[in-house]
Amino acid sequence: MSLALWIRLITAAARLTHHVHILDMNGDSYRLATSQKRARKRGALAPSEPNIHEAESAKWGATNED
To answer: What are the pLDDT digits (tens) for 12-37?
Structure first.
């Protein structure tokens, strides 16, 4: 690609990202929890295998109740 085309591409990307709002989502993953529950019901996931978000949830007082 020519330099002029690269400059136009970078400029277009900068214009698009200039007005973007970034949301920081550090909560529990609903999809992960649901898939782990389904896997446990099927027997595909060992009951002793920890949820990667459990420790983080406990720290903030969140519960895993549906």
So the answer is: 888 887 777 878 778 888 888 898 88
